[in-house]
Amino acid sequence: MIEMTIDGLDVQVEEGSSILDVAQFYGIPVPTLCHHDGLTDYGACRLCIVEIGKGDNTKLVSSCTYPAELGLFVRTNSKRVVEARKVLVELLLAMCPSSKTIQDLAAAMEVTKVRFKVEQGDCVLCGLCVRMCAEQMDAKAIGFVNRGKDRKITTPFDIKSDVCRTCGACIYICPACELRCQGPGPPGDVCGSCANVLPVCLEDEDDKMCFLGTCGWCYKELGRKKNKEKE
C-alpha cells in the first residue's frame, strides 16, 4: 500500500493506482471527458488535471495518467486547477459547441462565454472511439493520423475498412455525436441552462472547502442563521 495526501486527506492506496483512481475511490469529484471505465487512459482532454507538490514546487498533471506515489501531495480543486479547467472547457466548446457532454461540463464549471474562435467541428480528438474500437470491439478499424492542426481520426488510407463491422460502438461513446438540448440550431455557443453555483469559497480560499449539498449552500445557510439571530 502507498500512503499519500489528497485534498488534505491522508490515504492509503494500492500500487498501480492513478491519482484519478484514488479520487474516485474516496468520492472526490474530478471532471473527465476522455476517460471511460473499461478503456485505457489516454490523457487527451486534460480536464482531470490536479495540482501536485507543495509551496512553489507544484505542477499540473493529468490525474488519469499520473501514478499514485509515496508521499505525493495532491490538490484537486485549487484556484490554479479550477482556472485551468475552465480554459480547457472553453477550448473544447470552441471545437465542438454542439456536444451536450461538453455543454454540461461548461455549466458545471460556470463557463459562460468562449474567448476562442468557434469552429463548429465534429471531433475533439479525445480518442474514445479509437480505444473502444481497438480494446472492446477488437477491430482497430480506425486510428489517429497526422499531427498538430491536421490530426484526425480515420480509417487506414482513408478508405473503407475491411475489419469494420459497423457496430456503432464508436458513435455510442463519442461525446461530439450528442446534440444539445436545444437541438441542432441552438441560440448561442454556450447553453448555461444547467449552470451550477460558482464555488464562493474560492474567493477567500485557495481550495474548494467542501462538496456537501449544492455549491454555495454553506454560505446561504450561514446568512439565514445570521438573519434569524438579528430577528
List the defining traits of the structure above.
Alpha-Beta Plaits, Ubiquitin-like (UB roll), globular, alpha+beta, 3 domains, five-stranded mixed beta sheet, 231 residues, single chain, two-stranded antiparallel sheet, 13% strand
Short summary:
By secondary structure, the protein is an alpha+beta fold. The chain has helices at residues 19-25, 79-95, 100-108, 128-136, 169-173, 217-230, and strands at residues 2-6, 9-13, 49-54, 57-62, 73-75, 143-145, 152-154. Strand 3 and strand 4 form a beta hairpin.
Describe the SSE topology.
Layout (H helix, E strand, L loop, with lengths): L1 E5 L2 E5 L5 H7 L23 E6 L2 E6 L10 E3 L3 H17 L4 H9 L19 H9 L6 E3 L6 E3 L14 H5 L43 H14 L1
Helix pairs in contact: 2-3
Give a written overview of the molecule.
This protein folds into 3 domains: 77 residues, Ubiquitin-like (UB roll) (Roll), CATH 3.10.20; 50 residues, Alpha-Beta Plaits, CATH 3.30.70; 35 residues, no CATH class. Helix 2 packs antiparallel against helix 3. Strands 2-1-5-3-4 form a 5-stranded mixed beta sheet, with helices on both faces. The chain has 6 helices and 7 strands; from the N terminus they run E-E-H-E-E-E-H-H-H-E-E-H-H. With 231 residues, the protein is α+β, with helices and mostly antiparallel strands.
